[in-house]
Amino acid sequence: MPDPIDCKGDASEKGIVPNPASAGSVPARLARYPFLWIMLLSLVFFFTALESPSLNDGEAMYAEIAREMRLGGDWITPHLNGARHFDKPPLTYWAIGLSQSLLGETEYSARVWSALATVATILAAGALGRTLYGKRAGVLAALVYATSLGPCIFGRLVMPDVFLCLWITLAILGYRRGYGEDPRGRGPWPWVMFGCLGLCALTKGLLGFGLPTAVIGLHLLASRRLRAFFSRRLAGGICVTAAIAVPWHAAVARANPDFLGYYFIREHLQRFMGQRQPADEFLPLSVFLALTYIWTFPWMPLVPQAFRRAVHRLRTEGLRKTEDLLPLIWIVFIVGLFSASHSRLEYYALPAMAGFAVIAGKLWDDLIRAGADGPSGRAASAALGAMAGVLGVAAVAVLLVLGPFKDLVFRVFTESWPEAGWGGSPDQAALLSRMQLPAMTALAGAALFSAGAFAAMKKSRPRLAIGLLATLMAPFLVMAHWGFLVVEPYQSSKPIAEILDRYPPADVLVFQEPHEYMWVGGITYYTKRMAHILKDPKFEGAAAIRREPPERFLDSRDLLKLWGSGKRTILIADDSREQLVEALSRVRPVEILGRAGNLTAYATSREAPASLSGVSGVRP
């Protein structure tokens, strides 16, 4: 049977002569190019069904800003619902604006860049693994990244973090190839590094620029190469980075005098320290670290062993000689930095995933070599057996947690993601019941594949174990995609927008102010119109830029007047506005157009409005 992970040169290294009778067979020829097959299968996965589910409100924000840039002709100052939006630099908006011009305003045109970036990151992670540890380790690093849960889930979503993963991986690859042998730099790779640093800044601002710069700087310090790094090439590289990052920042600051304070103080410093108003979502440290580890599934049982071996080699070989220093700094710095942040979210450690993939690929390469100083196959099989057991228990637990113990799910969501709107409504309880059997089946299947990998390692067949772990992700990800479709009404404004399409257009569309203003992007993108915002008193202390233009922001009294003005008005709100809806009905009869997820669409009826006198009991 041909080795699916074998690479040209391995046989000669081991003194093994290939069988001439089988060398020319089709399977043998195909097996010579494992990296090519990984890339082809990645293209199939990441580009399949990009149009579904519909964009969640966070994704739709990026697509809507790109749409407003195109329609308004202003590619410098981002706008969301007509308001200036300085939360992120514009590279993501520009890319989506280009694809919208070519492919139309669709989910596919919004997500195609994320899919491309993720596939390119797989390629870059493989190239870095090969540079550090050899050809087969590079193939395995690419395989680990391509099949890890985190990149598979987030790598198809519209978010700048996916671009950032690519730029950081390429910057570190450029650094290692350009400065690995000569700290003064050689070849074109230093320019790749400096160019990607600029793209990091244009994707995620000062934080994006700082992450790879700190990783590279710490590596230079720890390996005692910093002095030699200062050269004429560095001066030229700084110019390359500045040429990419500075022009937009200078242009938007010139057009908006309040940009620099808002962008650097509020969006960088205060966000990191958790001092923005309204307060940012904030995962407990234990949840953040647990999810960071889970994103490495199905390779997670061997991640601790890979980390320990990398640290051991570092101690044995010394800081200046070991290749493990760079990925270790990469992982520890990024995970550590966001662990210290007070606005950390579940996907913030994604830029470190390629580092995890590289050291995991090295471990699996060592397991295949099985030398005297190689890793313990017994420890690896024990870890895989433990994962199989945990997955089996999880499959049984799902029957209970998504069944009689649904309240536990709602409590976890309420504590970890309080603004997600998962409070335990009957519709949400029914949704969890729908997910019960598929989730149990997926976990049971993953447990079986993991048990197979455990058995393979017990028999010293690491290649088979690798194949089983990679394969188990296919049905698992099908279930995950189905889960996204099931929760679509709670994550996307498209279902409520489709309800509005069945009725005559409104003169005024009013949307209740969300906790994160960017979530307005969902309703504006899918209705293709600007919305008035029903102010939430909780956000009165928010930055003024959040509520501009001010005439489009209404308090309850403003809405009551509008409701009785004779204009056809539609209000989209959740159940927390029941008191206001009751007051509106006393001004003019309220027609319920429909409900999707947590949101209900209310409209003025055609009956004559009543007087506003006597309408009370509603907070402004």
Molecular shape? globular
Specify the number of helices.
Answer: 27
**Alpha carbon gap, first and last residue:** 74 Å
Pairing-aware structural class of the strands and helices? mainly alpha
Beta-strand content estimate: 5-15%
State the share of residues found in helices, binned by percent. Answer: 55-70%
Arithmetic mean of pLDDT: 87
Low-confidence parts lasting 5 or more residues at pLDDT below 50?
A: 8-23, 612-620
Biggest sheet character: 6 strands, mixed
Summarize the structure.
The protein is mainly alpha-helical. Helices cover 63% and strands 5% of the residues.
Provide structural commentary:
The protein is mainly α. It has 27 helices and 8 strands. Helix 25 (520-527) links the parallel strand 3 (508-512) and strand 4 (532-534). The protein is globular and about 80 Å long. The model is unreliable at 8-23 and 612-620 (pLDDT under 50).
Task: Write the SSE topology.
Layout: H1 10-14, H2 20-23, H3 26-31, H4 34-47, H5 57-72, E1 79-80, E2 83-84, H6 91-103, H7 107-133, H8 135-147, H9 149-154, H10 160-179, H11 189-222, H12 226-229, H13 232-255, H14 259-273, H15 285-294, H16 303-317, H17 325-340, H18 353-369, H19 377-401, H20 406-416, H21 426-458, H22 462-486, H23 488-491, H24 494-500, E3 508-512, H25 520-527, E4 532-534, E5 553-554, H26 556-563, E6 569-573, H27 578-587, E7 590-596, E8 599-604
Parallel strand pairs: 3-4, 3-6, 4-5
Antiparallel strand pairs: 1-2, 6-8, 7-8
